[in-house]
Design brief:
five-stranded antiparallel β-sheet; four-stranded antiparallel β-sheet; Immunoglobulin-like; single chain; 13 helices; alpha+beta; binds iron/sulfur cluster
Length: 403
């Protein structure tokens, strides 16, 4: 007896995991912040315990390059696996099919289905907003009817768009609106994983039309590949059930390229895009691990020109712009380095709160300057008082004026 291995239970499981992750991520707190959220007021991306500032968006650029090559690689190898198994649009439509069934049961059920669709749309819109406004703030604000006009406006507009998408587009979204679906055609080659009817076994087809009836986008897969196919594999299971009666396997299945095709799966275009994705991942990890949480720029303080004081001490003043992009308050020492002279800095310490940007006027005193040079370069450093680790060093011109 041919045992049917249904794909749909696995698909539903993957969809459920995806839904739990998307709904749960804003609630998951890491180091006091949502695991994934873009904070609009401070222009910061909270990403699993780290905060990426607008100025550090080269990290996000690295991530975008990595994801772009990863998507090209996955699409080249596995076709529309994302569309059929994980895309939020597919997940939502699959989990709300019961609403469609309700609509065909009379006026009362239809009104109930519409109300339910609206409620689901409002909840999904709120879930999207939680990626910008933390749910811990959003939910109490809604309870007190004070979410703010901008948040309220976005919520209403998003709910309306999602409601119309449910009502009018559903799976038509994939064939008409989705840009990824449109791009996929150019990424496929003759070894990409597709769902296909096996033409070598076409004589075995019972013409029961089960595959066509179950297809959410109304395709007859027996007529060949279609760009509208979302790779949901519903037709694979439908045919498997019919063919089970004949003790045979489904006539429709997953194939790398066309059924019966030959050739290597790891072809050169897959190797190139996969390697590029790997290289950008390494670059991204390097950027992430080498990023410093303290940054500083130095400008001369034109309000206090260089001068000589007490006979043989030269004083230069600078404005230090220091930023703490980390998630905790930190105490820092300011040091000026020089190899041969005695150097003093005032003030020599500052406290920077998490996320704080501060401008500090500092005075650098150099004694016993023996050099004939009137301008020399000195190092000004910021050091952690907790770990004594130098966080950042910048060069500055030190001018010794004529006495
Ligand atoms: S043809 Fe099959 S895999 Fe493609 S959308 Fe229809 S049911 Fe899903
Ligand atoms: S479900 Fe299978 S047997 Fe029935 S029409 Fe489709 S391909 Fe043929």
């Amino acid at each position: 007896m041919t045992k049917i291995r249904r794909i749909q239970p696995w698909r539903r499981f993957a969809e459920a995991v995806q839904a739990v992750i998307l709904i749960g991520l804003p609630f998951l707190k890491i180091k006091g912040e949502s695991a994934l959220r873009f904070d609009i007021p401070t222009l910061r991306l909270h990403f699993f315990g780290t905060s990426i500032w607008m100025e550090e968006f080269f990290i996000v650029l690295g991530a975008v390059m990595f994801l772009t090559f990863l998507i090209v690689f996955i699409t080249l190898m596995f076709g529309r696996i994302w569309c059929g198994w994980l895309c939020p649009q597919t997940v939502l439509i699959d989990f709300t099919r019961f609403v469609d069934k309700m609509k065909s049961k009379g006026l009362l059920y239809k009104a109930g289905a519409l109300s339910l669709t609206l409620l689901i749309s409002i909840l999904i819109a709120a879930n999207l907003i939680w990626y910008f406004v933390p749910p811990y703030e959003f939910i109490p604000q809604v309870m007190e009817d004070s979410p703010g006009n901008v948040t309220r406006g976005f919520w209403i507009v998003l709910s309306g768009i999602i409601f119309l998408n449910f009502l009018l587009l559903r799976h038509r979204f994939c064939a008409t609106v989705c840009p990824y679906a449109k791009l996929q055609g150019v990424m496929f080659d003759n070894k990409t994983l597709v769902i296909s009817f096996d033409p070598r076994r076409k004589e075995e087809c019972m013409k029961c039309m089960a595959c066509v009836r179950t297809c959410p986008v109304g395709i007859d897969i027996r007529e060949g590949l279609s760009s509208a196919c979302i790779n949901c594999a519903e037709c694979v299971d439908a045919c498997a059930e019919m063919m089970e009666q004949k003790q045979k396997k489904s006539l429709i299945g997953y194939f790398f390229g066309l059924p019966g095709g030959t050739g290597r799966l790891l072809r050169h275009n897959a190797l190139i895009t996969g390697s590029a994705a790997g290289a950008f991942l390494i670059f991204l990890l390097f950027l992430s691990f080498s990023r410093v949480t303290i940054d500083m720029t130095i400008l001369p303080n034109y309000a206090s020109p260089p001068r000589i004081t007490g006979g043989k001490t030269a004083v230069n003043s600078y404005i230090l712009s220091v930023k703490n992009t980390g998630k905790s308050d930190t105490e820092l020492s300011i040091k000026a380095g020089s190899t041969d002279e005695a150097v003093k800095v005032l003030p020599d310490k500052i406290l920077l709160k998490a996320g704080e940007y501060k401008k500090v006027t500092v005075y650098v005193f150099v004694k016993n300057f023996g050099s004939k040079s009137l301008t020399k370069l000195i190092d000004i450093s910021i050091e952690s008082r907790e770990t004594n680790k130098i966080m950042v060093t910048r060069k500055a011109s030190f001018i010794i004026p004529e006495a």
